Recover the amino acids of this structure.
């Protein structure tokens, strides 16, 4: 009895979470003119191939979606890889070295935790433009690398490693870089992968920064471009193609999260806590 | 690279072998940022293609830089970073921003003069020329895609409501009566709709009634202009819109172009919009539509005069390091695209104004206006008379922000939160703050 | 601490650690410290869009913000918005986590079904719901209009606000679920089994044992939800309402974006950035206090 009530509630919740995606899928099967007139049908239509093809190869007032997906993938991978490299190096330096001024270095890195990019939109924009990085992949990625979460996570991970590891390495005569490369990195693999999943999703879903810094249609990310497709109402929205594009835009991070669920949950919880 | 090029052309001049040197030199690249999406972007790209094919010295490279606010922001950033594009395609709303900052744009009339290219600014229709000129009459930018506000109406709905589909109402009281009959006869879900509410329901409204939007000749005479749009005509109109909405006669479809879909979908039967929307209506509407002049209040003395324009233009952006050759390329390209047959071709296709008298004459000689008398409605409305101080246009810094302030306050009125008069009073107070801020930071 | 720490820092090189830190410090300096300092400095000036004139005005930008009733509205609205989103997302997310943990078979399946929206961008969530609820396009939107409900968030500010709250919360349920569920899983089974032996019902166990035990996680979630609602909601609002109608969905971040990037009023936008900075700093400190952790 209780169990069936729980089942029912969970089913309703799962359905409510899924419903808008199902309707988007439905929209992607129907002719845009019909949708725009407000007479969308409750049953799938026969326009899937056209809508999907139009979105992928033409876009809807944007670059073709294959291009947008590629941009998003490069950006998300760049952000994930960049953050991981920076965090690994700095965490290593902070945990395993006796350095003067380490406190200051850590405080500087930690400060970035306080400021999501949304807070410093306009000044960061100005700085990036002055560096000549507007409308470039570098301008898209680099400012988003300033973050402390990865460093904090890996620092904690390295602190929790047994100290015998490093003692053994030193007895073997290994220098710091050899220790980093041959011992620390292999041990960090899972943590790094978990962090990578979270950062990939974070990067893929960026909105405000790409919106500002990209003005060339070929460099748009898919998340921003799908909103642009709805546009300012200058022409009838190609709803069928837009919904096909929206589905394509949400699939990669969703697949990553579902396929690597355990890794992802672990990464998320250790990265944010 | 740049200096090599300059060196080469200097050398060429020195030894008087221009053809040889030119053949060897790379063409000078002229960057053009534009804000039109397909299919209208084809016009700009076609210009560049044709111009590049017509000569070898310059190469125009057009880049789509997002919608107007985005391309303007990008251009501003580029100016700050020291590498502005040669040509910027901008909306009318940015005119004061681009013309007030020293050294940002080179007025096209200066550009042509320096390049020694004959250019007749008086060829432009007065309402267009004046909107884009300095108070002294110097043309700042090349008008490109210039519509004016008009009325579109649904002839089928008119018929269903027992109205004469060939005699649309010309006054606001007539529009209201028609809307009442349309709604009563269920010929359409609602009567009236509008695109660009801040522009068409206030800027155009006041100009058409020969009433000021701001002091100092709507801002043309100086940066110390103050908004005065909260007059009885505008207040009554805003209140009417709210009352009509409550009575189901008017439907607010949002800002920018968003209101257009209310009409195109058949929901409303009388629509105030930019004349260029005709293109979209032809493509998407499944009813017969007509075009007519903007409505006016017939108890306002002297109304209507000519209507003002909106739309976009090409600016020649300046930079200290820019060479005379680069400016020459910009000038040649702008001259190329202002040839009458070219202007006529794209303006008639996209239902904007023909821009110049010569383009209009060219079209007339081709018989275009005999075949398409509807295209004359916007033209006649804009050329009805020599523009007055109120109907030449608006030149206010921060007009983007002022327009959205007006729209915010109009929306508050439509929500029933305040009267039309209160909306305009508040918009005036807020807008004047924008103007004072602009005045302090803009140097003459 | 210090003895242990010293033992943990076996490498004494002077240059290498700084080389290792250099990339991150460079990125932090260039894309964080410089812009932050720039914002602070700019907030005491006004300038034209092109930066050709720059006038020192002291605190004027801040005073104008404080005096602007619309900015004060945006402050209140942002906090109301954030509280509603946080409360709703947390309540539903934790409730679902309890249901899955206490009353469901096939926990992995449910976990997947309730986790995936985490991967959805707020802007995309906005597009999906817009397509469903648009008054003249959406399946449900058009039905609501036909039923004469007066459904039109393009002009009805209350509807627009609730719509944005609803979608923002909808998208954040998954996040709360993930953390609450993980926290519940980590609780020792023995505690709950002992309570069951005492005859306590599921609801009672949830209320008086499980929830108190995961309270630190809940507190952490409140802070994260507030940060999310404040900042990540930008994409959603930009996709859906653009702050309108009549400012009904204008949050502090949206306003800073419009003033800086659309209206080109750099001084005013910079002052807003500094205000936001204070808000985030406060939330972050709250979060660290909640986690009982010090940098």
């Amino acid at each position: 009895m209780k169990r069936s009530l729980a089942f029912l509630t969970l089913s309703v919740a799962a359905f409510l979470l899924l419903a808008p995606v199902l309707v988007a899928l439905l929209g992607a099967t129907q002719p845009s003119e019909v949708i725009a007139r407000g007479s969308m049908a409750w049953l799938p239509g026969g326009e899937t191939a056209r809508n999907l093809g139009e979105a992928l190869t033409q876009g809807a007032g944007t670059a073709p979606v294959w291009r947008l997906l590629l941009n998003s993938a490069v950006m998300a991978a760049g952000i994930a890889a960049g953050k991981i490299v920076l965090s690994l190096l700095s965490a290593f330096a902070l945990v395993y070295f006796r350095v003067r001024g380490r406190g200051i270095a850590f405080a500087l890195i930690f400060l970035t935790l306080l400021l999501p990019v949304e807070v410093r939109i306009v000044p960061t924009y100005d700085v990036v433009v002055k560096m000549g990085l507007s409308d470039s992949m570098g301008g898209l990625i680099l400012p988003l690398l300033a973050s402390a979460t990865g460093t904090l996570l890996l620092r904690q991970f390295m602190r929790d490693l047994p100290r015998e590891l490093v003692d053994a390495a030193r007895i073997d005569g290994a220098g710091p870089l050899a220790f980093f490369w041959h011992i620390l990195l292999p041990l960090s693999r899972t943590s790094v992968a978990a962090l990578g999943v979270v950062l990939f999703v974070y990067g893929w879903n960026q909105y405000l920064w790409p919106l500002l810094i990209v003005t060339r249609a070929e460099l748009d990310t898919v998340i921003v471009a799908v909103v642009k497709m709805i546009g300012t109402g200058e022409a009838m929205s190609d709803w069928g193609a837009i919904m096909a594009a929206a589905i394509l835009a949400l699939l990669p991070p969703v697949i990553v999260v579902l396929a690597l669920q355990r890794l992802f949950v672990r990464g998320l919880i250790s990265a944010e806590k | 690279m740049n200096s090599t090029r300059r060196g080469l052309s200097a050398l060429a001049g020195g030894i008087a072998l221009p053809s040889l040197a030119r053949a060897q030199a790379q063409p000078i690249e002229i960057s053009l940022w534009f804000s039109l999406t397909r299919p209208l972007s084809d016009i700009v790209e076609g210009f560049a293609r044709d111009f590049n094919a017509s000569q070898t010295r310059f190469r125009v490279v057009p880049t789509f830089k997002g919608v107007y606010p985005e391309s303007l922001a990008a251009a501003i950033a580029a100016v700050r970073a020291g590498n502005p594009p040669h040509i910027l395609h901008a909306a009318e709303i940015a005119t004061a921003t681009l013309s007030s900052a020293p050294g940002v744009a080179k007025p096209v009339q200066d550009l042509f003069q320096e390049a020694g290219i004959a250019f007749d600014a008086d060829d432009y229709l007065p309402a267009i020329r004046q909107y884009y000129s300095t108070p002294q009459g110097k043309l700042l930018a090349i008008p490109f895609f210039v519509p004016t506000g008009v009325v579109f109406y649904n002839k089928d709905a008119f018929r269903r409501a027992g109205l004469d589909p060939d005699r649309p109402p010309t006054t606001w009281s007539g529009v209201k009566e028609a809307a009442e009959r349309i709604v009563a006869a269920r010929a359409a879900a609602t009567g009236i709709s509008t695109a660009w509410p801040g522009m068409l329901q206030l800027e155009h409204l006041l100009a058409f009634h020969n009433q000021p939007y701001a002091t100092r000749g709507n801002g043309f005479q100086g940066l110390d202009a103050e908004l005065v749009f909260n007059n009885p005509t505008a207040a009554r109109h805003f209140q009417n819109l709210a009352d009509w909405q409550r009575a189901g006669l008017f439907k607010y479809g949002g800002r920018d172009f968003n209101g257009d879909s209310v009409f195109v979908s058949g929901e409303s039967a009388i629509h105030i919009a930019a004349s260029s929307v005709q293109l979209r209506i032809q493509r998407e509407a499944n009813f017969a539509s007509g075009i007519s002049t903007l409505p006016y209040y017939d108890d306002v003395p002297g109304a209507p005069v000519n209507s003002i324009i909106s739309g976009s233009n090409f600016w020649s952006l300046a930079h200290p390091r820019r060479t005379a050759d680069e400016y020459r390329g910009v000038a040649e390209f702008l001259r190329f695209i202002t040839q009458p047959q070219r202007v006529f071709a794209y303006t008639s296709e996209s239902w904007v104004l023909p821009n110049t008298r010569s383009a209009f004459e060219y079209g007339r000689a081709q018989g275009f206006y005999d075949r398409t008398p509807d295209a004359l409605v916007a033209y006649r409305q804009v050329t009805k008379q020599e523009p007055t101080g109120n109907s030449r246009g608006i030149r206010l810094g921060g007009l983007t922000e002022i327009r959205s302030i007006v729209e915010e306050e109009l929306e508050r009125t439509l929500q029933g939160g305040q009267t039309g008069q209160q909306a305009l009073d508040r918009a005036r107070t807020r807008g004047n703050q924008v103007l004072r801020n602009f005045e302090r930071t803009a140097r003459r | 601490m210090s003895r242990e720490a010293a033992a943990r820092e076996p490498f004494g090189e002077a240059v290498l650690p700084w080389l290792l830190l250099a990339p991150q410090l460079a990125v932090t300096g260039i894309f964080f410290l410089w812009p932050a300092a720039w914002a602070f400095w700019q907030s005491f000036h006004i300038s034209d869009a092109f930066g050709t004139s720059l006038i020192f005005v002291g605190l004027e930008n801040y005073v104008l913000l404080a005096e602007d009733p619309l900015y004060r509205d945006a402050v209140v609205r942002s906090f109301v918005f954030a509280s509603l989103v946080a409360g709703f997302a947390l309540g539903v997310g934790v409730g679902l986590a309890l249901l899955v943990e206490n009353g469901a078979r096939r926990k992995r399946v449910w976990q997947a079904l309730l986790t995936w929206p985490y991967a959805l961008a707020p802007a995309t969530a906005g597009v999906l719901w817009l397509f469903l609820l648009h008054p003249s396009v959406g399946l449900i939107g058009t039905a609501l209009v036909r039923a004469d409900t007066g459904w039109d968030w393009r002009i009805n500010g209350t509807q627009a606000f609730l719509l944005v709250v609803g979608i923002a919360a909808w998208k954040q349920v998954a996040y709360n679920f993930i953390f609450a569920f993980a926290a519940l899983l980590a609780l020792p089974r023995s505690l709950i089994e002992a309570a069951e032996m005492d005859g306590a019902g599921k609801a009672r166990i949830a209320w008086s044992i499980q929830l108190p035990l995961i309270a630190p996680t809940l507190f952490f979630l409140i802070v994260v939800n507030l940060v999310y609602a404040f900042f990540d909601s930008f994409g959603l609002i930009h996709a859906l309402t653009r702050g309108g109608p009549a400012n009904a969905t204008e949050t502090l971040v949206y306003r800073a974006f419009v003033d800086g990037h659309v209206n080109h009023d750099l001084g005013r936008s910079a002052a807003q950035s500094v205000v936001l900075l204070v808000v985030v700093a406060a939330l972050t400190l709250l979060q660290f206090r909640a986690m009982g952790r010090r940098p």
